[in-house]
Design goal:
With 597 residues, this protein is an alpha/beta fold. The chain contains 15 helices and 26 strands. The longest helix is centred in the C-terminal third of the chain and has 20 residues. It is elongated.
C-alpha cells in the first residue's frame, strides 16, 4: 500500500476551447473530495457576490483575465489522488492562440485525456491537439466526448464522433485506449458508471485514469545529464569546479567514467554535490545535482553528460525532424533561427522540406515554407554540432524548440541523425583525447596561472584584405597584456609540417586538418592562438573545429565570407587600420571572459 500511494503519474487534459476540460477537472476534484477545505464554497460565494453562474471551471482558472474571458490561458497543475495512485493533472489551454502553452503543458505527460464537445463536434483544433500528442510521443490517450446532456445522451451522436475521430487518430499512428461519453458539469460517468449512459459499457474517467500504465522507470535508461552551468567558488580556498544540471534519465555514481558530448571529453566523477543537504554518492533521474571531476576538462552549458560504456547520444549538425510551427511568420529556408534542445542553444537553419501537412485534415501540400499551425518533416542544419537522442528512444533529449528572434515559434521531435561529413573527424578526436598522455599540469592550473582561458582566434576572409596584418597586431596586443599567445603562421606550416603536401585543392583538406591538430596542441598548452585562413567555407570550418574539439573558437570575419551556416563572432572592416581592428578583437575576448583579470 505504501508503494502504491507513492506512485505518481502526469496526465494532461487537452481539447478545443469551451469543450469542457476545466469543468471536467473541477467536477472530478469536487466529486472525489480532492479540493482544499472550503474551496468549493468559496468559489460559489464569489460567483453569488458577482451575480455570476457557478462553473466548476472556476476552481482552476485562477488568472484574472481567464475569469473575464472564460478561457484557460496558462496550464494549471492540479494534484489529485485515486485509490491506486497520485496524479498531477495538467489542464492545458485549448484556444488556437495558446497552442504553445498546450505543448509546454503536455511535454512531461505520460498519458492524456482529449475532450470533444458532443454538440459542437470535432474541430480543427481537436485534430491539431491529437497530432501534437502523437508528436510528443504520448501513446496513452482516452477521448472524452463531453456535454452528452446537451444531445440528450444519444448513443448515435457519440458513435458518429468516435468513428470519425478514431479514423483520424489511426491515420497519425495513435491508437486511443478508450472513447468515454460524459457530462462533466452534471457529473455523469466521471467517477462511476452513469445510469443516463447505460448503453456504454466501458470505464468511467476515474477508472480510465487508473488503467493507464506507468512507463518503465527512467533511471533504467542510459544516463543523460544536460549541463545547465559550471560553477567555480573562490571563497575559503574552495577549489571545487562544479558541473550542474538535471538528470533526465539514468543514474550517476561517484567513480563513474563519463563522457561529455558533443565534445567527446572524458573524466571521472569525483563527488556528487547537493546544496544544503547531506552528501550522497549517487543520484537518479529527476535529481538536480552537481558533480566534480577527477580530471579537469573544459565543459560548456549544453553539453550532455553520459556514461562511458552506455549507448551515447547522437552527434551531428544535420537533423531530420518533425516540427509543428506556431510562429507568426512562416519558417523559411536558410533564415537563421535558434534551436534549443535540452540546455543546448545554437543557430539553426531550415535546409530542406520533405513534406508539409495541414494538421487539421492531414492533407499534404507542396509548400516551400512552413506556415503557422503546419506540421512538417524537414532537415535542420545547426551552426555547431549538437548532442541529442531520437525522440522514440529518449524524449527529454529528443525534443526541441525553435526560437524566431525572441519568440518560441516551433517545436518538434528528432527523427534521424544525418551524417554531416564530420563524424569520422569527431570520432578520431574523441579517440585521441581518450588516449592523450596528459600533462601533470592540468588545464585549470594553467588558466589560473596564466590569467586566461585557451582560445583560438581565427581570422577568415578573402585573400589580400590584411588578415595577416591584423593577426600580427593582435598578437602584439595580447602579449602586451601578459597573455600567453602565439601567432600560427600558415607559411610556417607549409614550409615545415606540411612540406610534403602539394598545395592543390585536393590537399587543402589535409592542410586544414593538420592546422587543427597543431592548434589543439597549443590550446592544450593553455595558449591564446591567433591564425588566419583564406576562403574558408562552412564544411572546412566544421572540420577544423572537429579537430580542435574545443568550443573556445572565435571566428572573426574580414570582408566577405563563403560561410552561410556558421556563427560569426565579429565582423571587421578591412579598410580600417589593423590596430583598430585588433582592438575590436581584444574587446570581444574581454566580453567573452577569456581574460580572468
Amino acid at each position: 500500500m505504501a508503494a502504491s500511494a507513492q506512485e505518481k503519474m502526469n496526465i494532461v487534459i487537452v481539447g478545443h476551447v469551451d469543450h469542457g476540460k476545466s469543468t471536467l477537472v473541477g467536477r472530478l476534484l469536487a466529486d472525489t473530495g480532492s479540493l482544499p477545505q472550503g474551496k468549493l464554497e468559496q468559489v460559489r460565494e464569489e460567483c453569488a457576490r458577482n451575480a455570476k453562474p457557478f462553473e466548476y471551471a472556476f476552481l482552476l482558472d485562477a488568472l484574472k483575465d481567464e475569469r473575464q474571458q472564460g478561457i484557460t490561458i496558462d496550464t494549471a497543475r492540479i494534484f489529485f489522488k485515486s485509490k491506486k495512485r497520485e496524479y498531477i493533472i495538467i489542464d492545458a489551454p485549448g484556444h488556437i492562440e495558446f497552442l504553445k502553452n498546450m505543448v509546454s503543458g503536455a511535454a512531461r505527460a505520460e498519458a492524456a485525456l482529449l475532450v470533444i464537445d458532443a454538440q459542437e463536434g470535432i474541430q480543427e483544433n481537436s485534430k491539431r491537439h491529437g497530432y501534437l500528442l502523437s508528436m510528443l510521443g504520448i501513446r496513452q490517450v482516452a477521448v472524452c466526448v463531453n456535454k452528452m446532456d446537451l444531445v440528450e445522451y444519444r448513443q448515435e451522436v457519440f458513435d458518429r464522433i468516435e468513428a470519425e475521430y478514431r479514423k483520424f487518430l489511426t491515420e497519425i499512428g495513435l491508437q486511443p485506449r478508450a472513447f468515454i461519453p460524459i457530462a462533466a458539469r452534471e457529473g455523469q460517468n466521471l467517477t462511476e458508471p452513469s445510469a443516463r449512459l447505460n448503453w456504454y459499457q466501458g470505464p468511467s474517467v476515474l477508472a480510465m485514469l487508473d488503467l493507464f500504465e506507468k512507463a518503465a522507470p527512467i533511471d533504467r535508461k542510459p544516463l543523460r545529464l544536460p549541463v545547465q552551468a559550471v560553477y567555480k567558488f573562490t571563497e575559503s580556498e574552495d577549489t571545487r569546479r562544479i558541473v550542474a544540471g538535471r538528470v533526465e534519465s539514468g543514474s550517476l555514481s561517484v567513480g563513474d567514467r563519463i563522457v561529455f558530448l558533443p565534445s567527446g571529453k572524458q573524466s571521472t566523477v569525483e563527488s556528487i554535490e547537493v546544496f544544503n543537504a547531506p552528501a550522497v554518492t549517487s543520484v537518479t533521474a529527476g535529481s538536480s545535482t552537481g558533480i566534480t571531476l577527477t580530471e579537469q576538462v573544459y565543459v560548456n552549458r549544453g553539453d550532455i553528460v553520459c556514461k562511458a560504456g552506455e549507448p551515447p547520444p547522437q552527434v551531428s549538425s544535420l537533423l531530420r525532424v518533425e516540427i509543428f510551427w506556431m510562429g507568426k511568420r512562416p519558417m523559411v529556408l536558410d533564415r537563421p533561427y535558434k534551436l534549443k534542445v535540452a540546455t543546448a542553444q545554437t543557430t539553426v537553419r531550415l535546409k530542406a522540406i520533405d513534406r508539409v501537412i495541414d494538421a487539421s485534415n492531414l492533407k499534404q501540400t507542396d509548400k516551400k515554407e512552413i506556415g503557422r499551425h503546419d506540421v512538417a518533416r524537414c532537415v535542420l542544419q545547426t551552426a555547431a554540432p549538437v548532442a541529442f537522442d531520437l525522440a522514440g528512444e529518449l524524449e527529454a533529449t529528443g525534443r526541441f524548440v525553435i526560437v524566431d528572434e525572441y519568440d518560441i515559434a516551433g517545436g518538434g521531435i528528432v527523427l534521424e541523425a544525418i551524417d554531416d561529413g564530420q563524424t569520422g573527424l569527431r570520432q578520431n578526436a574523441v579517440a585521441r583525447d581518450l588516449n592523450w598522455d596528459r600533462s601533470e599540469i592540468g588545464p585549470e592550473e594553467r588558466t589560473q596561472k596564466y590569467g586566461h582561458t585557451p582560445a583560438l582566434i581565427l581570422l577568415a576572409g578573402p585573400v589580400g584584405l590584411g588578415k595577416k596584418d591584423i593577426a600580427k597586431e593582435l598578437e602584439k596586443a595580447l602579449f602586451a597584456q601578459g597573455i600567453k599567445t602565439y601567432l600560427l603562421r600558415m607559411g610556417n606550416l607549409l614550409r615545415g609540417l606540411d612540406s610534403d603536401l602539394e598545395m592543390q585543392r585536393l590537399e587543402r583538406r589535409e592542410h586544414l586538418r593538420r592546422m587543427g591538430e597543431v592548434s589543439h596542441l597549443l590550446l592544450d598548452a593553455g595558449l591564446v592562438v591567433v591564425a588566419t585562413a583564406s576562403n574558408l567555407n562552412d564544411e572546412e570550418l566544421a572540420e577544423l573545429k572537429a579537430s580542435v574539439s574545443d568550443r573556445n573558437v572565435f571566428l572573426v570575419q574580414v570582408g566577405l565570407l563563403l560561410l552561410k551556416n556558421s556563427v560569426i563572432d565579429l565582423t571587421l572592416d578591412p579598410s580600417a587600420a589593423a590596430t583598430l581592428n585588433s582592438a575590436q578583437v581584444m574587446a570581444l575576448l574581454k566580453s567573452r571572459q577569456v581574460f580572468l583579470r
